[in-house]
Amino acid sequence: MSQIFHEIEKKIITSLQNNPIQTPEKLEKSTNLSPDQIRRGIEWLKLKDLAIVNESQTSNISLGKNGLESFHKGLPERRLLELLKNESKNLQELQKELGSVFGPAMGLARKNNWVDTDDDKVILKNYLTELPGEKTLKQIGENKISKNEVDVNDLSNILKRPDFVVEDIIKIKEISLTENAKSIEITHDLSGAIDVESKVPGVFVARTHPLKDTIDEIREIFVTLGFTEVIGEFTQPSFWNFDALFTPQDHPARELQDTFYLDGISAKKIGTVEQIRKISESHKKNWRYYWDINEARKMVLRTHTTCVTIKHLAETKPDESRIFSLGRVFRNEKVSYKHLVEFNQIEGVVVGKNATLRDLMGIQREFYRRIGITKIKFWPTFFPYTEPSLQTMVYNDRLGKWVELFGMGIFRPEVTKPLGITKPVLAWGGGIERIAMLKYGLDDVREFYNNNLSWLRSVTKCQ
């Protein structure tokens, strides 16, 4: 059966068939679509397994204020060596000549055994024609160049000096089609004429489930807010589901009455050697117990989608990122009016150098506003892998009271540092069924799965 495409998808597919690899910016120009339309179209095609998104980054470097001064006047240590090249000088003379850079220049010269002191005299011992870092200064000059163009070892000599080198990280996202999409024939009827004899796809009158409508709406909101969806497996090693999130191996949540384990199945590879070593050290140091790698290998049905996002962050180590994960999770709980053993969860993550808790609250407010919830407040709470942590409370007009919804916070250093994630990570998540209950005025989450046709017909529309 032929696929039906939105006009946005058609334009993107056609453009990529003509030019196989493009950035979102190039697609905007080639399709005349807005950035928001491009983001949505790419996500739709990804979900249909028709588009591939490859992300990479490159670094450009230029000289900062102190770097430019050293480029024109010479490194502080170079200026010191030049003053001593023909004769020894006393400390007072050198301080007067070099001013504020005297201290750093003398420190480096002594450390590298280039100079010696005799009472208040400074004596040149070793004159170098090229000092560490000078080659890089000359290469960069007053330009901005790729970091790959310079000698990494020589660059390291000035990289840590304050305001010497400015590094500009550029993220590159490239879109291409899968093999299935390359052969798709896209037709654009611009004339308005209709071929009444052409074959059309079969139409099956049906209604989309209200929970599916809610999931689609939430996905659309996050995409329009600039987030990218990451997808992971339902089954996960305990390493990513628990250990990487700083959950101790004797925590009650890991017991059989709370988690579904896959009987007799263990993961052969759970992470890199470095990841396993650092996470085990973090557990041993902070929880003070013996960390068992066999426990980390046990396979579980994921209890949350955080295992997907934390693994993605560990593999990519982004300086800045906006991602979300949406899908089914599993908890070994007693079924009740507010609990299920299988439900849907949404989780978002923002990574950024200057990301703060205030930013997180702002994102949450905007999300709830778009979903139609306006009465919101935040309460301090505790979660195992975030600190500080907040609980979102929303007001239910029908019940006349505040109810809990999403949990949120900033990942603890014990979670991020062992995985090499250096920037603050804002995270939040919660059950989608709870939002759907508010939206459709339900008091029992089981109503979504009871197949009550009269209720379903009353809240859904024909598609």
UniProtKB/TrEMBL annotation:
Main subcellular location = cytoplasm
The subcellular location is: Cytoplasm
Q: Name one GO biological process term.
A: phenylalanyl-tRNA aminoacylation
Coiled coil located at which positions?
Answer: none
Give the keywords, sorted.
Aminoacyl-tRNA synthetase, ATP-binding, Cytoplasm, Ligase, Magnesium, Metal-binding, Nucleotide-binding, Protein biosynthesis
Tell me a Gene Ontology molecular-function term this record carries: metal ion binding
EC number assigned by the record: 6.1.1.20
Domain Aminoacyl-transfer RNA synthetases class-II family profile residue range list: 218-438
Enzyme class name:
ligase
Q: Name one GO cellular component term.
A: cytoplasm
Taxonomy, superkingdom? Archaea
NCBIfam families in the record:
pheS (TIGR00468), PRK04172.1 (NF003210)
Family of the protein in this entry: Belongs to the class-II aminoacyl-tRNA synthetase family. Phe-tRNA synthetase alpha subunit type 2 subfamily.
What name goes with this protein?
phenylalanine--tRNA ligase
